Amino acid sequence: MIITIPDNIIDRKKISEKKLKFEFACFLYHRKILSLKQAAKLCETDVIQFQKELTKRNIYLNYDISDLETDLQNLKSL
Prior knowledge:
Radius of gyration: 16 Å
């Protein structure tokens, strides 16, 4: 999929392509549309760097009770 944004809209705000990708990926991750790994891939970065970007924006990791229960079961099976 290709999304086209006219240059004159972006130029007015002085937003680089890289920053726009991070903003879009953070938005999609926050809305639970993309996973952490998918969002990092969209930004062409690693998961740790993407987590740092989430922190800058006060966006918490999507981790709920069912994730915790799964992790606990996995730990018990070790």
